[in-house]
Amino acid sequence: MFHKSNCLIAQSGGPTVAINASLAGIIEEALNSPQIDTIYGALNGILGVLDEKLINLSNTFSKDKEALDLLKNTPSMYLGSCRYKLPEAGDADSDYLEIFKIFQKYNIKYFFYIGGNDSMDTVSKLSKYAKKINFDISIIGIPKTIDNDLRHIDHTPGYGSAAKYISTSILEIAHDAYIYDIQSVIIVEIMGRNAGWLTAASALARNEYNTAPHLIYLPELPFSTEQFITDVQKELSTRKQVIVAVSEGIKDSTGEYISAKSGQVDQFGHVMLSGTGKYLENLVKEKIACKVRSIELNVLQRCATHISSLTDINESCMLGKTSVPLALEGCSGRMVLLRRESNSPYTVSYDSVSIDEIANKEKYVPVDWISESKNDITEEFMEYMRPLIQGEPKQSYKNGLPSYLSVNHLIHDSNQA
């Protein structure tokens, strides 16, 4: 006879297309477990635990299979998010005392935290504190980040869908550019301050007639503005329209962000990052004097469910499901992951790793996946990325727009009834 306990789930960091699929996977598996009674969700990450902002997910999803299916294809974070770094634990640390007080009050024996690098840091700290005070709880990390910069996992949930959106956008930008019989440069700034995985995905836009993006710059290698101008001029000598994909975090040989070169400072004297794309746009105007514009994809690349990858959604859901039996076995301080077994046919396996192998570490694009010219990627990188954008989830629509699960519980609007 099992003594039932409860589980708690929270989400943290930046949103993605696929993070709710991981949430749905946990909920689905937990609902079927005889060891779990009530499934709680904390609103706004670990801050929701500290503030005791918990909702009963069992009530919401146990009787509504359609709601769970809808959750898998709802963008962003159903439980809300936060960006809060727990301090180092101390004997009298109030954060830890409050968190474990909530765990005890709600009989939480299983805590699942879905997020990126900082979230895995939280998993690490909480699991160590639980062990220190001999508190019986399993704390498991479920990965997500469009940045694809978590170590030991082949690729992170959210990356494939973001890559699909970025490459689709580049292809559509190319179609827009090709209609004009004039010389032009379009610079597309893509997220990635330290790792260029997203920017590299722009190369997936290339097909039998489209060669854009014609130049790709990642933050893994130093960026030279002089070489950039030379590269653009070389491309303009053979084509009229040049499309450039560039990571927001490219730096010069001294490690300074290119976007910090505007020379402007705020009221505190801090250098203002004017935007990498905008800086390069102005540079091309000055040095080449052709038509040029910059486009910043910004948050659009994070939650574009209308162009998501079915592979991404399915894998994200499976990682959520995988975390539940791991917790029920009594494991703690681990992150679930997937490993690629084959490219053709594309197959993966699921496993877990100690959270200390993940937290506060970053995975960068291998330098040998960047071309010798430093302005493109290799075919090996293309082979890595292609399987991740395959398939399209079935999307329902209402009044011409995608139907998503309501997040009314997150909306703070004094005008709402």
From TrEMBL:
Required cofactor(s): Mg(2+)
GO CC terms: cytoplasm
Annotated site location: Important for catalytic activity: 144
A Gene Ontology molecular function term of the record: metal ion binding
Catalytic activity: beta-D-fructose 6-phosphate + diphosphate = beta-D-fructose 1,6-bisphosphate + phosphate + H(+)
BP GO annotations: fructose 6-phosphate metabolic process
Phosphofructokinase domain location: 7-305
InterPro entries attached to this UniProt entry: ATP_PFK (IPR022953), PFKA (IPR050929), Phosphofructokinase_dom (IPR000023), PKF_sf (IPR035966), PPi-PFK (IPR011404)
Chief site of localization: cytoplasm
Keywords: Cytoplasm, Glycolysis, Kinase, Magnesium, Metal-binding, Transferase
SUPFAM superfamilies named in the record: Phosphofructokinase (SSF53784)
Residues annotated as binding diphosphate: 14
Pfam families: PFK
Subcellular localization, as worded in the UniProt entry: Cytoplasm
Ligand binding (substrate): 145-147, 191-193, 248
Pathway membership: Carbohydrate degradation; glycolysis; D-glyceraldehyde 3-phosphate and glycerone phosphate from D-glucose: step 3/4
Site (Important for catalytic activity and substrate specificity): 118
Main EC class the enzyme belongs to: transferase
Complex formation: Homodimer.
Annotated function: Catalyzes the phosphorylation of D-fructose 6-phosphate, the first committing step of glycolysis. Uses inorganic phosphate (PPi) as phosphoryl donor instead of ATP like common ATP-dependent phosphofructokinases (ATP-PFKs), which renders the reaction reversible, and can thus function both in glycolysis and gluconeogenesis. Consistently, PPi-PFK can replace the enzymes of both the forward (ATP-PFK) and reverse (fructose-bisphosphatase (FBPase)) reactions.
Protein known as: Pyrophosphate--fructose 6-phosphate 1-phosphotransferase
